[in-house]
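User: I'm putting together notes for a lab meeting next week and I want to include a structural view of one of the chains we've been expressing. I don't have a solved structure, so I'd like a prediction I can at least talk through. The sequence is below, exactly as it appears in our construct file.
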Amino acid sequence: MYSSKDLKKIIKKIFLKHGLKKNDALISAELIVYAEIIGASTHGVSRLKMYCDRIKKKLINPKPNIKIKHISQSISHIDADNCIGFVSANLGIKQAISNAKKSGIGMVGVKKSGHYGLSSYYIEQAVKKDYIAICFTNAPPAIAPYGSKKSLFGTNPIAFGVPVKSRIPFIFDSSMSKINRGKIRIAEKLGKSLPYGVALDKYGELTTNPKDALSGVQLPIGDHRGSGLAWMVDILCGVFTGSSHGGKVKDPFEDFSGPQNIGHLFIVFKKNLFDKGFDKQIKLNIQRVKKLPRKDPRKKIRYPGEKKYYNFKNNLKKKIKLPKKVYNELQILINT
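Assistant: Thanks for the context. Below is the predicted structure for the 336-residue chain, given as structure tokens.
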């Protein structure tokens, strides 16, 4: 077991050994440990070997020449030069915040990037500075377009955040599939079964076997609605930013034929652009929901962001326990 501080130091050292710049290694380690602290281990240390493998195979550029094109005061376009996704996304949200300070709204598109971890991390950065934020990223094929039996769209998460004065921020972060792909991968690694009804095998039959699910199709949330939302994200992050799309994003664990070329889109804006009473109204909005009759009187109605906040608060000083397989992978990376 590791403290979050010690684990961060270890991961940073591993990334430095693989050629990342000091600050880039720190950002990457921060995001991986953040995932472990909030209980999203599917995006944590279990992915570290994958990032290192892709750096070794020169599919992630450890020393990128990132270029920012300022299209207007509000809009910027980032060419990430195939860097690790944590770094380009961190730059993207910071640039979007900077643009929003000038004009009230900031939009940043990122191309030639890779998997960037948890969307909520980037949303949090904007919300902490009192902005509303939305972000999207596309991903490797996982979801079949509605009516098809072949996967094409990624799980393509959507994240949205709003500051709530003197309260926990409202942060919604969800993939467009019933289960995120990371949970399937970690289930395969640990020899566990999937919940029933989240994936099909390559023959179109429901499966609880993670290996069969990875070679088959993940089911979208809301049937055709989830498929449509995944398509929307593919357009916004792929077509719109000039990145891979339409099933061409490479799987980071299995496809080593080239860089992923993932696209991200960040939109940040001032909360009071239209109504100066935003702070009062958002509190009222949340209070109305929380006062509704509860299905289970013993359980409070929570809004998006509360669970993550309490997980982070409760786990920050606790030791992080890694599954044996993940621990063994970490030891190999430490010692090679």
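A couple of points you could mention at the meeting. Residues 85-103 form the longest helix (19 residues). The domain at 180-219 is CATH 3.30.60.50 (Wheat Germ Agglutinin (Isolectin 2); domain 1).

User: Perfect, that's what I needed.
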